[in-house]
Amino acid sequence: MSLTAPDGRTPLFALSASVFVERDGEILLLKRAGGEMTGAWYIPGGAVDAGETVEEAARRELFEESGLAPDGPLTCVGVSHMHAYGLDSLQVLYACDCAPGDVVLSHEHSAARWMDAATYRDRYFSDEILARFESEDRRIWSMLSGIRSAIDAYLAWRSLREGALTARAKLSAD
């Protein structure tokens, strides 16, 4: 179900935020305990509440779902289109580091693990997997494609960041 503005033509989107939490070169993944995609692994995130900024929502969702808080700023790494719970949503993607500490799961999740982002993408959202769902179940394919897009945006940002750090180190050495 897509929502439209009163003019009947302009699409309306829900707004959500997700966080690529980084620790030792890996990202935090949480296993969904219910709702859309039960059993699937995804990064912490959720809907932006009324009166809340997108960044506030990202911080709140991260803490509610994992018990973790960023130990520095959140960096916006992209925006991805998602379709979940019957709504089209724009998902603002952030990245941050978190200090050491145990993940404390919310009732929405049944497990947590840390994984390399490229490995995560290749294992669960490969071209072959997306092609299979595109022909078998367009609803699932749409969700998986949105998640793949989010991971690709994060990986592109991370590659740019690493390139900039390498260039900065080279300039400092010269």
Structure description:
By secondary structure, the protein is an alpha+beta fold. The protein has helices at residues 54-66, 117-124, 127-136, 138-173, and strands spanning 3-4, 11-12, 14-23, 26-32, 41-42, 45-47, 75-84, 87-97, 109-115. It has a single domain, classed as Nucleoside Triphosphate Pyrophosphohydrolase (Alpha-Beta Complex). The protein is built from four helices and nine strands. Strands 3, 4, 5, 6, 7, 8 and 9 form a seven-stranded mixed β-sheet that branches. It has a two-stranded antiparallel ribbon with strand order 1-2. Helix 3 (127-136) runs antiparallel to helix 4. The longest helix has 36 residues, at 138-173. The model has no long low-confidence stretch (mean pLDDT 89).
Q: What descriptors fit this protein?
A:
7-stranded mixed sheet; 9 strands; 31% strand; alpha+beta; 174 residues; single chain; Nucleoside Triphosphate Pyrophosphohydrolase; two-stranded antiparallel sheet
Biggest sheet character = 7 strands, mixed
Q: Note the gap between the termini.
A: 57 Å
**Number of domain modules:** 1
Oligomer: single chain
CATH topology: Nucleoside Triphosphate Pyrophosphohydrolase
CATH class: Alpha Beta
| Computed structural class | alpha+beta
Q: Give the overall average pLDDT.
A: 89
Beta-strand proportion: 25-35%
Q: What is the helix/strand order?
A: EEEEEEHEEEHHH
Give a quick summary of the entry:
This protein is an alpha+beta fold and 174 residues long. The protein has helices at residues 54-66, 117-124, 127-136, 138-173, and strands spanning 3-4, 11-12, 14-23, 26-32, 41-42, 45-47, 75-84, 87-97, 109-115. Helix 3 (127-136) runs antiparallel to helix 4 (138-173).
